[in-house]
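Following up on my earlier message about glycine. Here are the inputs again, as you asked, copied directly from the submission form:
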Amino acid sequence: MQEIIRCGDIKDDLSRLLNNLQYSGLFILTDSNTATLCLPRLESIPEIMDAKRFVIPAGDGHKNLQTLSQIWEFLSQSGATRKSLLINLGGGMLTDLGGFAAATFKRGIRFINIPTTLLGAVDAAVGGKTGINFGGLKNEIGAFCPAVAVLIDTRFFRTLDSENLLSGYAEMLKHALLSGSEALDGALSFDFDGINCDRLTSLLFDSVAVKENIVRQDPSEQGLRKALNLGHTFGHAFESLSHEQHQPVLHGYAVVYGMVCELYLSHIKLGLDRAVFLRVTRYIKENYGTFSIECNRYERLFELMQRDKKNETNTINFTLLRTPGNALINQTATKGEIEEALDYFREIN
Ligand code: GLY
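Thanks, got it. Here's what our run produced:
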């Protein structure tokens, strides 16, 4: 299991970590944004000055086999060995890709994740999922391989715009729903009109702890970890549809829209309390706005859900909630129920 380090001063925390790890050869992966916006904060560390660097283009479109191959080539040509250490400095795209490059290079070298987005810190960088997109499908190829450590420094998030903060907060909302009523009350009382950074930081670390606790019990997603897919069955379909329609929505936005539909299913199928469901829906609507879906897109959404890699048989799988803190995995719904959830989503728009 990876160590999560809540950074006071990232330079001290990273130096200490590097001094404690035995490795031969240090490598840093950044993208074109984090190379200029984030790496300078680490550059005064002697080990970082001597490390070999590789910069990839930013954007999910580059989370592919070609970029992966370039990272392997870089490691190989720069003399990386099985004892080398890779630092991934970036958002979820970069930590997923860099993690997979490390997991596969010479059958696996160790890596450290330093997430530079809220979404990355609360989700992608933590929990050992690594991978790339392939054949038009997100994260189709990958491996479970935890980082040796994840260093979270919230100062990196200060430059994020409110859309990217909200996108990360979507996963925090999900963790709160999986945790229980108290966590949910806390998450729903966070005010994006006057952001309190200390409160956001405290909610963030509580949220990471929820994910860690689940991953510790089920690192390779045999059962319990599927709870983390709450909102993602509809959410991934919305995200793919938004890309097909050339009006892409950020991942977290797609997830909260998906969460509305899946909480609706939770309400009609498992009796999730209407008041809880309405409170969450209202918070989402107020902060994330709407996503317009025409009913002639239902069939396409249905197809996208059927292709989701979370399905183990021919049925579409959901994680639904009986109450906050009580999730049921491997739930199914009829086509009629899925359409009803989509109708509800359109009505609240
Ligand atoms: N993003 C969900 C998980 O890590 O399992």
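One observation from looking it over: The pocket of glycine is lined by residues 123, 127, 129, 225, 228 (CB under 6 Å). Hope that helps, and feel free to reply on this thread.
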